[in-house]
Amino acid sequence: MSQRMHKYAFPVSKARKYLEPGPVLLLSSQYKDHHDIMTLGWHTVMEFSPSLVGCVIAGMNHSHELIRNSGQCVLNIPSASLIDEVVGIGNSHGDQLDKFEAFGLTPEPAQVVGAPMIAECFASFECQLYDDSMVANYNLFIFEIVKAHVAEQPEYPTTLHYTGEGRFSVMSEKIVDRSRDFKLEMLI
């Protein structure tokens, strides 16, 4: 039997502490000879096929303009070992410095899009802009992943999950496998 939880009033502005869905990303973008990396925590899987991801990218970010012009980006997933780079990139402006150079990251050519992948990240998902109808009102870009690159090991890397106020939780390699309890058609 489950234990009942005592709850207290919590500020709605801090709900992200419990709702952030996935790992922090390093989004790389490029338009002409300008490139950027931004730290991104506001994203969600929206569909499996085509593989759609929604990302909130504030208009003040240099990456916002690069993506509006190019219609492309790469969603790179850093491991927890890159926390210093994640924080540093999040605290700097791409129109003022080359973040690849400043943070010692290696740009790699993508295969489908013009934006670079980040060699130090364990996964890189090349994306094309799929729907920009909510950008003007909500800064919500919907991307289609058109090519995926993932390191062979580890299968479940430690990832950073932003909970607001400069704090991260870390997902470890400890995975609870309950796949045997699911209906086969639900294992997507």
Characteristic key phrases:
single chain, 188 residues, alpha+beta, seven-stranded antiparallel beta sheet, two-stranded antiparallel ribbon, 5 helices, 11 strands
Structure overview:
- This protein is an alpha+beta fold.
- Helix content is 15%, strand content 36%.
- The strands form three sheets. Strands 2-1-5-8-9-4-3 form a seven-stranded antiparallel beta sheet.
- The longest helix has 9 residues, at 62-70.
- It starts with 15 loop residues before the first helix and ends in a 17-residue tail after the last strand.
- 30% of the residues are buried.
Which percent band covers the strand fraction? 35-45%
**Structural class by helix and strand composition:** alpha+beta
Helix content: 10-25%
Shape: globular
Oligomer: single chain
Counting DSSP E segments of at least 2 residues, the number of strands comes to 11
Care to give the gist of this entry?
With 188 residues, the chain is an alpha+beta fold.
